[in-house]
Amino acid sequence: MPHRIAIIGGGYVGIELAKSLENIAEVTLIEQNSHFVHAPAMVRAVVDPSILARALIPYDTLLQRGRIVRAVAQSVSETGVTLASGEEIAADHIIVATGSHNAVPFKSNGGDIERLRAANARVHDQLVAAKTVAIVGAGAVGTELAGEIAHAFPEKSVHLVSSESDLFPQHPAKLGRALTAKLQASGVSLTFGVRAQNLQSLTEPFAGTLSLSNGTEIASDLVFPVIGSKASSSLLQSLPGAQLGQAERIKTDAWMRPSQLRNVFAAGDVAEAGDAMTIVSASRQISWLKKTLKAVIAGKNLEDLKPYTPWGPKAPFLVPLGPKIGNSFLGAFTAGDFLTRKLKGTDLFLSKYNKLLGRDA
Ligand SMILES: Cc1cc2nc3c(=O)[nH]c(=O)nc-3n(C[C@H](O)[C@H](O)[C@H](O)COP(=O)(O)OP(=O)(O)OC[C@H]3O[C@@H](n4cnc5c(N)ncnc54)[C@H](O)[C@@H]3O)c2cc1C
């Protein structure tokens, strides 16, 4: 009898694993939404909603043999997954890849795709009408958003506010310095080492004057709170031995297991395995899981196989500021406009993910 694999979450981890295992196991992918959300393109979609036609990709052409169940998974056990409807999906191996949520309009956050489209349209209209925009949070999403707005709407006044002392202090200083100079040259004003004191929402853009901890104010027509992702880990939190890490991620053992259940794995944003919450990091976990699950299906004992080793701070990190400029940390060196544009800025990996989901690239 073929091994049964249940995968919860059709994000980056879920779709790649389902596709690569469907020919050697009976794969069931459980996903609450009708469409895959390609997050890197959701930043540019705020300035150019036409990109949504390729950034929100239907799941119906993803798998050939495996099945996709459109449902909310409610709980996980050693024998399978229980859906919110009460239906049980029996499985021999379970992978929890429920990812994370972020501010509107970047991710669907449990709502359906039409709500995400409506949020994108609403925020785009607010942006078009705004003269002054403030972005709170200068992680990759906040920094890219500042670059996209400065590129698409050079007449707007854009402020990027960060509580850190520089851009990307965890990476070599050259990366942050180069991006800071490019943003400033595009007219973006950067304020470091301050906190916003009156955020009306942490999850949705809003209008209003922003008060900063250094006593200054930014009279803004639109404020984007972009303060990072939180893992969607509720399914894992109650499992025996589960330990909560940063941003509500669940710590995993050396074989990517988040609890004492021997056949339940977790990967991607929901798992704290020593990697950042990025697609780039998830790709290393996906490769390890593919190889490891194939060996387990072939009869190997999991704990005799090589444990997962995280990518850590050497993981590549690509930061376009609109379609033309940007900088990237590529492990051994920091690349400039040309490579950043080629690798990410021009296409934002839209062709890759449309192809993976069985659509015209
Ligand atoms: C705006 C933005 C831009 C980004 N850009 C980049 C980038 O350029 N490069 C990069 O490397 N990283 C980027 N990231 C980070 C990247 O998106 C995440 O690391 C990635 O999405 C994690 O993939 P995942 O498979 O773990 O989960 P996700 O992509 O979050 O997918 C999880 C899936 O699980 C589903 N789900 C959740 N709970 C349930 C449930 N109970 N039942 C059924 N389904 C469920 C969700 O609907 C979702 O489809 C960006 C993030 C954001 C917010």
TrEMBL record:
- SUPFAM superfamilies of this UniProt entry? FAD/NAD(P)-binding domain
Tell me yes or no: is Flavoprotein among this UniProt entry's keywords.
yes
GO function term, MF aspect, one: electron-transferring-flavoprotein dehydrogenase activity
> Residue limits of the FAD/NAD(P)-binding domain?
78-285
Q: Which InterPro entries match?
A: DHPH_N, FAD/NAD-bd_sf, FAD/NAD-binding_dom
Superkingdom of source? Bacteria
Pfam families, per this entry?
A: Pyr_redox (PF00070), Pyr_redox_2 (PF07992)
**Keywords on this record?**
FAD, Flavoprotein, Oxidoreductase
Residues in Pyridine nucleotide-disulphide oxidoreductase N-terminal domain copies: 4-44
GO cellular component terms?
Answer: cytoplasm
- The name this protein carries in UniProt is NADH dehydrogenase, FAD-containing subunit
Member of which family?
Belongs to the FAD-dependent oxidoreductase family.
